[in-house]
Write a structure and sequence with these properties.
Number of strands: 7
Strand order of the largest sheet: 4-5-6-7
Strand content: 15-25%
Number of helices: 3
Radius of gyration: 62 Å
Largest sheet: 4 strands, antiparallel
Structural class: alpha+beta
Number of domains: 2
Shape: rod-shaped
Oligomer: single chain
Order of helices and strands: HHHEEEEEEE
């Protein structure tokens, strides 16, 4: 409406044309309030849906964590059992070693007791005021005799073939022999046998003793 008309003219025009009247402010506020309430309900519903989805995701995460913990615990238990079974033979070997050591100690103790009993028996047989004479070890006469026999022998040379021969000189008797394996050198105190002929030496034997001539 034009701003220069009088209030009486405005009232007349409103009576003639009621559609020109402005809607009351309260009805506009009421419609605005209904829309706001509707939007609030939508927001609340969206919030509830979001919370429910978060709970479901959290529940699935907890289940996954529980399964992972169960699998980890099972693997760790299996490892402990396997390690115990693997270490058991070592424990058995340790026990066996201890038993062997104890058996050796027991054997040594028994042998010591037997030696002590023998000594006490000898004391009872003899006069306690006289010591039991110790046996003197006899010198190995065969070895000394063997050493004296080959003292004057010298290896001159070796003839190497499928049947090797050795040349030996006796410096005391001024004799030289060419001998095969198994031959013997006659000496005053016995026979020296050519046991084996090698490329650089020969092995002699006398009454169970062996010496090398190089």
């Amino acid at each position: 409406m034009p701003e220069n008309i009088t209030p009486e003219e405005k009232l007349l025009k409103l009576i003639e044309n009621p559609a020109m009247a402005k809607p009351p402010r309260n009805s506009r506020k009421l419609r605005f309030s209904f829309q706001a309430i509707k939007n609030k309900f939508k927001a609340i519903r969206n919030i509830r849906i979001g919370i429910s989805s978060q709970k479901i995701e959290r529940l699935f995460n907890l289940r996954s964590i529980n399964k992972l913990l169960i699998v980890t615990s099972s693997l760790f238990s299996a490892y402990l059992i396997f390690d115990f079974i693997k270490a058991k033979p070592n424990l058995d070997m340790l026990n066996v070693g201890q038993r062997i050591k104890q058996a050796k100690n027991a054997t040594a103790l028994v042998s010591n007791n037997l030696a002590l009993n023998d000594y006490l028996g000898e004391i009872k047989k003899r006069d306690i005021f006289h010591f039991v004479p110790l046996k003197k070890q006899e010198p190995d006469s065969a070895k000394e005799t063997f050493a004296s026999l080959i003292n004057n022998l010298r290896l001159v040379g070796i003839i190497w073939s499928s049947k090797p021969q050795v040349m030996i000189e006796d410096k005391q008797e001024n004799k030289t022999w060419i001998l095969n394996q198994g031959d013997e050198i006659l000496k005053v105190n016995g026979k020296i046998k050519i046991k084996q002929i090698l490329k650089d030496r020969t092995i002699l034997s006398f009454e169970g003793q062996e010496m090398e001539l190089m």
